[in-house]
Structures are given as C-alpha cells and as structure tokens.
C-alpha cells in the first residue's frame, strides 16, 4: 500500500506537476480506497489544528487566580506558624469549600459548552472508492481528492489538480485582503507563501470559482497549523465580561479602602498584628461576592441547555447574555421571513422569444446544488417535462457565480458545434448588459417584483470558437426572458416579528434580492414603517448619512458582503447592540462585525465559523427565545450583584465601625468567611429564579453607577440593624465576646439571606412576584443553618456560643422591620432612578472576533471564572 512521501509538503508539492504529486501520494482519479483512508487516519490523526477540551486543572487554576485568595492563604499560613493553628485550619477549610463550589459549577458549565460546540460540524466532498462522498473535514487524510466550491473554507493544504476561475481569500494567512487567482500549473522553487498559486491552503476561503485538489498536508502540518499552534485561542472579552471586570475593580477599590483603614485602626488600638491582618483580609474577602463567577457560569450553562432544547447551539456561553442585549436585528430574507422552499413558477419570454427557449437556456445554465434557485428549476415539473429540450446540447465551460458580478455564464454547444454564451443572474444586472431591451420586458419584470416573486433573467450571445468564458464577455447580450420563482412568506414569521418588537428588538432586512420583492414580503408580514435602499444608494452615503438612513430604512436590497458589514459597523457605533443573522459566504463579514453573529446549521462553513450562535432551525421565534433567555440570565446575575454588594458592604461597614469601639473583634476572621460562604451558597439557586415580565421588555446593560448607588443606599440600611443587634447584645443580654459574635453572625446571615425576596423584584414580593422554589429553600436553609450552628458542637469549635430564646424573638421582629424598610427604600430608589434615566448613549466598538477556524476538535469557549471577577 502506497503511503504519502514524508518529505512532501505544500511548498515542495507546489513546484511539481499535479500528476506527479498525486502519484507520490498514492492516489488516482478514483481517490483513495477505504483501506487507505483507515491506515492514514491512524498514521496522521485527525485533520484538526488543536484540541481544546475542558481540562479540570485549567478550570481549577482560574478559581485560584484571585489575588485576595492568595493574600488570605498567606495570612492563614502565617497564623498557623505563630500558633493560631485552629483559626488557620478553619480558614483553610472555608477557602477550600468556596473554591470547590466555584470549580464544580464552572466545570459543569464548560462541559456543557464543549458538548454543544461538538455538535457544530463542517463537511466537505471527497473522492473515495471512485465516488464523491460527503465527509467530516476532520476525517480527511493526505491523498484525498477534495472538491472546492464558492464559500468553502479550504479544509487542508491542497495541490490543485483542476480549477475554473478559482480565487481564494488568504487574509488569514498572508494578511492580503485581495483574493488570489489560482492555477494548477507548478510554480518555481522558493516561491513565497503568498504566491503559491498552484495550491489552496487550509483556512482560506473560496472567493470565486471552483476547483479540485489533492490533500498534501493535514492538521498541524499545514501552513495554517504551523501558525495557529503557537497562538492563543482565547476570545476577546464580550461586553458582559467587560462589565464583570469593571464591577470587580469597583469592589477591589472599596475593599482596599476598608482593609487598609481597618488594619491601621486596629494596629493603632494595639490589637495583635496577626489578628488585625486576618480581620482586615477577611473584611476584604467578605465584601467580594466570591461565588459570582459560579452564579454566572451556572446561569449560562442552564441557559445553554434551555436554548439547546429550543434547537439553538451557543458556541460561546457568554454570548447568551449578549444576545439578550440586542435591540436591533439585521437578517436576510430567504428562509427567515420566507419559507425558503423555492419553487419554479413559469418562464416569461421576451418579445421575439418563447417560453420553451427561456426554459431550455435556463436549464442549460443550471448548476445543480450550487444554489436554491437552480435546484428549484432543475427539479420542477416544467423541467421534467422539458428535458427533451436539452437533446443535442453540451455544456463546455463555466464561469461560476460570484457576489460582485451576480451572474453565472456557461458556454454551450449544439449538435452542429455552434457555441453560445448563456448568462443568467440578477435581472437588473443582466438587463444592463443586454442591448435593445423591450419596454414590455421591463414592464413584465416590474409586475413580477410587485407580486413579490423572485426573478432570474437569461441572456445570450455567440461565443468564440475557442476559449473559456470570461467576465469581459458578459456584455451585448440578447435578452431571452425571465425565470420566475415563488418563495412565499413563512407561516409564523409575522408573529415572531411581533414578539421581537414586544421585546424591544427592531428588525431590518439585508438581502441580495430586489427591493420591491423584499418590501412586499415585509408588508405581508407586518414589518412596515420604513423604505428601502439599494447597494448603489449606499455608495453615495458617508457613515453619518448611513447612520441616519438606517433609522428610516427597513430593507437594504442588492447589497454586497462589504456593504452588509459596513451597515452593521455603522449601526454599532450609533448605539445599542446589533445582531446579524446570515448563512452564506457573503454574510461572513457582517457576522464578524456584529455584536452577536447568528447562523444556521445548514449554512456555509465560513458563516458557521464566524457566528457565535447556531440555529438548528432558521426561525425568528427561536431567536426571540434566545433574546428573552439572555435577558433572564442577566437579570438574575444583577440580582446576585445587588444583594451581595449591598449586604456585604453593610456587614463590613458594621464590622469596621464595631471594631473601633469594642475591646474585642466583633467577629472572628473565620466567622466572617463562613458567613460569606453560607450566604453565597444560599444564592447559588438564583439561576433558577423567575424574572418579572417588565425586565424582559428591553435590553439591560451593566450600570456601575446604579450598582454603586444601590450599595451606598441599602448597605447602610443593613448596618442600622447590625448596630441595633450590637446594642441588644451588649445592653440587653450583657453578652461576652463569644455570645456577641454569635448574635451578630445569626442576625447578619438571616437579614442578608432573606433580603433576596425583596431585592429580586421591583414588584411586591410574594404577592405580585414569587421566587422559584429552589431559591426559597436555599435562602431559608442558609438562614436556618446560621441560627442552628451556635447550638452544635461545630459551633463551639468555630468560637460560637448558644443564644437565649429571647434573642430569636427580637431577631424575628428586626427581620420583619428590616424587610419592610427595604421595601419602602426600594420603591423610593427606583422611582428616583426612573426620573434620572439618561438617554441611550452610543457605545464604542465592542468585542472583536478574529476569524475562528473549524479545525479544532472541541470548544474554544472560556466561561467566566474568578479571574474574570477579580482581574
């Protein structure tokens, strides 16, 4: 059995004749045999650049990245060596439990993301055992013969055997934005990577034409692999992650001020330095919602599972929340607003022609499998009945369709050998290239557009006796007629548009179809209120003019890939979050430019690679589910943030104040950490909570000003009841240090655990907004554990003391008064916030997604961890 030559790489293969390369790789025109494929798969492995599977040690490393955690561990170690060993052990146990909770939640979230990502597959056609078969790109081996078509991502390094007007965009490798023409002939030795015209390289995109090549190198042995292996696959942060980081920095500043001032004050009061240091660090850790990353990861993982049940795959978990921020969706028309099941209706002849001639030339220029219109024409009853029209004709050469020309041309020969150039494509483009177009033909075209039908025009001209079709020859055509297709509006699309509107999401259509057809579909679905602009119109607008035009335009018709991307970029700079839904190669630039790129499982590989979200069904109603889910996740995250920061700030403020007038620490460092751990653990059920309907009606964004104001208003309210507890313990129960600490521990844990029921909603809790059962049970459970802990043997180990029954009666009254006061404060706070809501300001550019490669065997997702919350 012949195996590939070990010294044959793409550089050396490019200098050899194609036949010699195929011979050295042991392949023929029939491709490899199944036995050869199996042997080479074992020899060379998967055609994947790298594997990015979830690794427990990596997740654990992110949990341990917090600088506050390092300081706490260092202080515990110091405490151990100076004799305070019990405190050091207790702190170590609490830190371990906290890290363990965060690790468990984030690891499950990463596994969920990996499972979802693995379902997004990329396939290509390879010649094996004499026939073309569709295979997963990861199964390709050296010696496979691969077919390339418009929009394909080249799946391996190929030595080209045959091409037809093939051009590849090689920006990912060479940085050159212009597509490179490809020729099958060998190049001179020493030719640079950018000049290897006889090869198609992994990761590049077929910009135009078709080709066939033999696989020379796969996986990390490709040119792309050599570059990518040394690069980080970490995505730049999304707005959600940026918001988390900014919020974390706010907490760092607050913690730094509190920690420093408390440490200095305790040292000035002649407290032991180690006790002062541990207490100060415990204050710093206590004000930080340590399990915020776990809450976020749990919310995102649960959201991804719910979206998967709705037939949506999320390639990056954090993009679920970004989807909830969307307030404008740009979408294509076919398959989204229409059924996508295109059917051929009729042939409309130009004056002097007849319908059978239009059908004959249309069928002769059909490339089955290239696009939906050609497939609909070829499989139509009219085509089946008119197959005899093709007798005696042969198709010789093809100039494939591309998105700049919007045409496809073929040279066809009849039985007598007469050669004819048949050009078919967008009717405006074909008519521009025709001579003496009758007014009746223009009127017929306008009537079809007004009816909402899709139209393809067909023109002819004599072809030279020799040569292949070229773009310059697509002129001075004779119009034969029009091919008319029906793509009716999708049932349920109108209701989905209404639902998106109710969620505050506007929808605009970017289409390669004509403006009248798109406007007719939009009108049928109730998407009205704006006009249409063509790609030609856009060329006369600067960015400021385009930004103004977007607001009053519903349909952008006959737009190029570059124009789609420009529209998206301009809208992002104007404010709000932008999503783009597309599935073709011409959508890839816009998918990259959007805040959230959305494609479909049946889309082209380059579109799926550029997207953040993959729809298994092309349905706007599914998108509405995703928007609502993203907002629900964000709302629950903010619940935890508001509760955690206000309660923790209040408790730490109380601790700082009490430490100044008490002759003992108001709470031991281990008790502060335990309090924080129990509270955080009780909030891990927040991702299961319901969200009020009004919170889903509009996008929500990180507002550090609101968080800061909330903390400064409700934290002191919490402190009022802490100081009331201090007074009760000192003046009513005459408590010593252990009993005092026990009383404040129980009171602080009860108030901050139960305040969740008031802060989780802007409505009246339990009456107009009910929490989920898991959240109710965990919040009550945390408060209950705190009340019972001083009565247990473990409580004595932790330095607690049994409390009298009178204290619990007082505590119940204080909790009721506290919750009532919080409710009144909440109403005043949000009334004031509504009165001062600033206008929606434009945002700077958001996260930039470099082009991902599908040559990875698992997820590239990186769920937020403690590093995100504290960096």
UniProtKB/TrEMBL annotation:
Localization, UniProt: Cell inner membrane
Keywords assigned by UniProt, alphabetized: ATP-binding, Cell inner membrane, Cell membrane, Magnesium, Membrane, Nucleotide-binding, Phosphoprotein, Translocase, Transmembrane, Transmembrane helix
Topological type in the membrane: Multi-pass membrane protein
Catalytic activity line of the entry: Mg(2+)(out) + ATP + H2O = Mg(2+)(in) + ADP + phosphate + H(+); ATP + H2O = ADP + phosphate + H(+)
Pfam families with a match to the protein in the record: Cation_ATPase_C, Cation_ATPase_N, E1-E2_ATPase, Hydrolase
PANTHER family: CALCIUM-TRANSPORTING ATPASE
Protein name (database record): Magnesium-transporting ATPase, P-type 1
Name of the gene this protein is made from: mgtA
């Amino acid at each position: 059995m012949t195996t590939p030559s070990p010294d044959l790489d793409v550089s050396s293969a490019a200098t050899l004749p194609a036949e010699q390369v195929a011979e050295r790789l042991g392949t023929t025109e029939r491709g490899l045999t199944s036995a050869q494929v199996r042997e080479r798969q074992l020899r060379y492995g998967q055609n994947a650049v790298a594997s990015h599977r979830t690794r427990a040690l990596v997740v654990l490393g992110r949990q341990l990245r917090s600088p506050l955690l390092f300081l706490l561990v260092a202080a515990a170690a110091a405490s151990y060596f100076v004799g305070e060993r019990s405190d050091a052990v207790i702190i170590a146990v609490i830190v371990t439990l906290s890290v363990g909770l965060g690790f468990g939640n984030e690891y499950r979230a990463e596994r969920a993301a990996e499972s979802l990502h693995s379902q997004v597959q990329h396939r290509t056609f390879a010649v094996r055992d004499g026939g073309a078969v569709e295979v997963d790109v990861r199964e390709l081996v050296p010696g496979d013969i691969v077919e390339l078509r418009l929009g394909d991502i080249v799946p391996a390094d190929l030595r080209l055997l045959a091409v037809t007007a093939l051009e590849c965009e090689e920006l990912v490798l060479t940085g050159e934005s212009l597509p490179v023409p490809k020729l099958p002939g060998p190049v001179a030795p020493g030719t640079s990577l950018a000049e290897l015209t006889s090869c198609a390289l992994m990761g590049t995109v077929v910009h135009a034409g078709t080709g066939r090549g033999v696989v020379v190198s796969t996986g990390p042995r490709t040119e792309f692999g050599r570059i990518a292996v040394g690069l980080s696959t970490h995505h730049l942060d999304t707005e959600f992650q940026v918001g988390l980081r900014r919020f974390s920095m706010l907490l760092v500043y607050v913690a730094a001020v509190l920690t420093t001032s408390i440490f200095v004050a305790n040292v000035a009061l002649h407290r032991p330095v180690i006790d002062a240091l541990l207490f100060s660090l415990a204050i710093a850790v206590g004000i930080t919602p340590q399990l915020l990353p776990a809450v976020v990861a749990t919310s995102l993982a649960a959201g991804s599972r719910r979206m998967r049940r709705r037939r949506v795959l999320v390639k990056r978990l954090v993009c679920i929340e970004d989807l909830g921020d969307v307030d404008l969706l740009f979408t294509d028309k076919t398959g989204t607003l229409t059924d996508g099941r295109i059917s051929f209706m009729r042939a409309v002849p130009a004056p002097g022609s007849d319908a059978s001639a239009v059908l004959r030339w249309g069928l002769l220029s059909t490339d089955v499998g290239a696009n939906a219109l050609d497939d609909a024409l070829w499989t139509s009853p009219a085509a089946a009945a008119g197959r005899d029209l093709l007798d005696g004709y042969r198709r010789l050469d093809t100039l494939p369709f591309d998105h700049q020309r919007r045409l496809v041309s073929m040279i066809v020969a009849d039985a007598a050998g007469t050669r004819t150039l048949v050009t078919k494509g967008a009717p405006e483009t074909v008519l521009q290239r025709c001579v003496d177009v009758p007014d009746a033909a223009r009127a017929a075209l306008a009537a079809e557009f007004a009816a909402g039908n899709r139209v393809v025009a067909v023109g002819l001209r004599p072809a030279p006796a020799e040569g292949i079709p070229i773009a310059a020859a697509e002129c001075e055509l004779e119009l034969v007629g029009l091919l008319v297709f029906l793509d009716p509006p999708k049932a349920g699309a109108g209701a989905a548009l209404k639902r998106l509107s109710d969620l505050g999401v506007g929808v605009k259509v970017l289409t390669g179809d004509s403006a009248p057809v798109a406007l007719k579909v939009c009108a049928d679905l109730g998407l009205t209120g704006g006009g249409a602009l063509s790609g030609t119109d856009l060329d006369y607008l600067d960015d400021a003019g385009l930004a103004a035009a977007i607001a009053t335009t519903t349909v952008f018709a006959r737009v190029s890939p570059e124009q789609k991307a420009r529209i998206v970029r301009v809208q992002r700079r104007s404010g709000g979050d932008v999503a783009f839904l597309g599935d073709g190669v011409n959508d890839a630039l816009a998918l990259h430019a959007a805040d959230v790129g959305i494609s479909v499982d049946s889309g082209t590989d380059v579109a799926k690679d550029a997207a953040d979200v993959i729809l298994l069904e092309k349905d706007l109603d599914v998108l509405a589910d995703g928007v609502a889910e993203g907002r629900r996740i964000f709302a629950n995250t903010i619940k935890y943030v508001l509760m955690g920061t206000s309660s923790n700030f209040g408790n730490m403020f109380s601790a700082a104040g009490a430490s100044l007038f008490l002759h003992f620490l108001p709470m031991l460092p281990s008790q502060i950490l335990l309090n924080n751990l129990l509270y955080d653990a009780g909030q891990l059920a927040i991702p299961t909570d319901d969200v009020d309907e009004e919170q889903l009606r509009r996008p929500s964004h990180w507002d550090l000003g609101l968080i800061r104001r909330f903390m400064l208003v409700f934290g002191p309210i919490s402190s009022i009841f802490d100081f009331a507890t201090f007074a009760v313990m000192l003046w009513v129960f005459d408590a010593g240090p252990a009993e005092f600490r026990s009383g404040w521990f129980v009171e602080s844990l009860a108030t901050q655990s139960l305040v969740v029921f008031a802060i989780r909603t802007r409505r009246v809790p339990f009456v107009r907004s009910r929490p989920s059962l898991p959240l109710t049970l965990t919040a009550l459970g945390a408060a209950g554990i705190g009340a019972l802990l001083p009565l247990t043997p473990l409580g004595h180990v932790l330095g607690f003391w049994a409390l009298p029954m009178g204290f619990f009666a007082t505590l119940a009254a204080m909790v009721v008064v506290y919750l009532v006061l919080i409710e009144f404060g909440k109403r005043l706070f949000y009334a004031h916030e509504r009165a001062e809501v600033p206008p929606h300001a434009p945002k700077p550019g958001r996260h930039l997604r470099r082009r991902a490669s599908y040559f990875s065997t698992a997820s590239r997702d990186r769920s937020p961890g403690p590093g995100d919350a504290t960096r």
